[in-house]
Amino acid sequence: MRQSRIADVRAYIVDDSGGSDYHDQQRGHWIIDTPIANPMSVYADYKESRASWGINAFGSVVVEVESDDGRVGVGISSGGVPACHIIESHLSRFLIGQSPFNIELIWDQMWRASLPYGRKGLALHAISAVDLALWDLLGALRDEPVYAMLGGRTKDKLPMYATTVRPDLACELGFHGAKLPLMYGPADGVEGLKKNVDRLAAARDAVGPDFRLMYDCYMALTVPYVIELAAALAPYDLYWLEECLPPDDYDGCSALKAAVSSCLFTGGEHEYTRYGHRELIARKCFDILQPDMTWVGGMTEARRIVAMASAYDIPVIPHGSGVYAYHLQYAFTNCPMAEFLMMSPAADEIVPIFGDMFLDEPLPENGYLTLPDKPGWGVELNRAGLSLRRPVAAG
C-alpha cells in the first residue's frame, strides 16, 4: 500500500467575527452583555465584559493539512495572525514530507521545537490547531471517525450541560445542568458577594432541586473570598465552582479543595499539556479537570491527560471545545458529561458553538448529543461562507 505524505500546511485567519474564537462575539452572548468577574475586574474600566480587556484580540486560526493525494484535514483554535506565523514559519517543517500517520512523532517535534518560546499559551494554541487537523486527515485516510481511532465508543450519547445566563431555559431545553458566569468578585465587596448568592438562589427557585447548577469564576477570586462565597452558596446546592483562582496558583487551588466540602472544584481550561495537568493532579487542585481541546495540545495531548486522570478516578469534562471534545468523551469512560456554550443572543435556542465555521456542527437534542459515523471529526469547513485569509505563507 502506498504511504501518504503531507504535501502542504496552510494557516488562515477569519476576517469576520466569531469562528473558532467563541469569545469574539458582537452581541448577545454573556461574555459581552453581562458583567462578569474576571482577572481584570479589579480595574473599574474592565469590569463589564471579557471583551472589554481584549480576550478576543487575536481571533481565530484555521489550519489545513493536505496529503499528497489531495485529502485535507482541518483544525481550529484561537491565535489569529501570530498563530499563523508560528504554524507556517516554524511548525510546518515538521509536517511537510512526513507521514500523517506519525502523529505522535509530529506532536513531539512541534512541542520540543517550540519550548524556547512556548510551553503554554499561544504556541500550544498553534500546536493544537495543527494536531486537530492531523487527526481529521488521518480519519479521512482511514475512513474512520476520530473516536473510533481512539478505541471506539464507550457511550451511545453524551449528556450535556449548558453554559448560559438562563438556567431556566436550559432546563426547559433538556440539559442536565447549567453553568452561570459569576458576576461579582472581591473588588465588589460584601454587596457583590450578596448579589452572587441572590442570583444562585433565584436560579435554584427557577429550576427546582434536581437540576445541577455551577458557577464559572474565571480566574477572578481569592482564597478567602471563595471560602466565604462557598459557605454562603451552600444552602442552594451548588454543584461546582470553576476556575476560581489564577491558573498558576496551585497552592491556592489545593487549599480550597481541602477547605470546602459543600461543592466540587473544577479547572484546567487555562492549563497546558500533560505536564500542567500532572501538576493539578499531584497537588490535588480539582475534583474535575477541564482541558480545552483547542488549547491544551489537541487530541494527541488530551488523550494522555484523560488516561492519567483515570488512574486517580478524576473525571474529565473538557472546556467547551465543541466537536473535538465530543470525540474524546465518546472514547473514554471517565468523561461523563459535555459542556455546550449557549451562543444564541437570548440564550433561548441551540446554535453552533463555532458559529458559521462548519456546515454540519453536531448539536444536542433534549440534553444529549450523538456523533455521526463520518470520517475524522465528521464536520466540513464552511469555505464558501467564511472570509478566510492566509496572512503568512511558508517560504
Helical coverage, percent range: 25-40%
Per CATH, the superfamily of the largest domain is Enolase-like C-terminal domain
Task: Identify the CATH architecture of the largest domain.
Answer: Alpha-Beta Barrel
Overall geometry comes to: globular
β-strand amount: 5-15%
Compute the number of strand runs.
12
Oligomer: single chain
Which class of the largest domain in CATH terms?
Alpha Beta
The whole-number mean of residue pLDDT values reads 94
Q: Termini separation (Å)? A: 32 Å
Query: If you consult CATH, what is the topology of the largest domain?
Result: TIM Barrel
The run of helices and strands is EHEEHHHHEHEHEHEHEHEHHEEE
| Number of structural domains | 2
Rg, nearest Å = 20 Å
Protein model, in words:
The chain has 395 residues and is α/β, with parallel strands linked by helices. The protein folds into 2 domains: 6-21 and 58-143 and 381-389, Enolase-like, domain 1; 149-369, TIM Barrel. Helices cover 33% and strands 14% of the residues. The protein has 12 helices and 12 strands. Strands 4, 5, 6, 7, 8, 9, 10 and 11 form an 8-stranded mixed sheet that branches. Helix 2 (80-89) packs across helix 4, helix 3 (103-113) packs antiparallel against helix 4 (122-142) and helix 10 packs parallel to helix 11 (298-310). The longest helix has 21 residues, at 122-142. The chain is globular, with a radius of gyration of 20 Å. The model has no long low-confidence stretch (mean pLDDT 94).
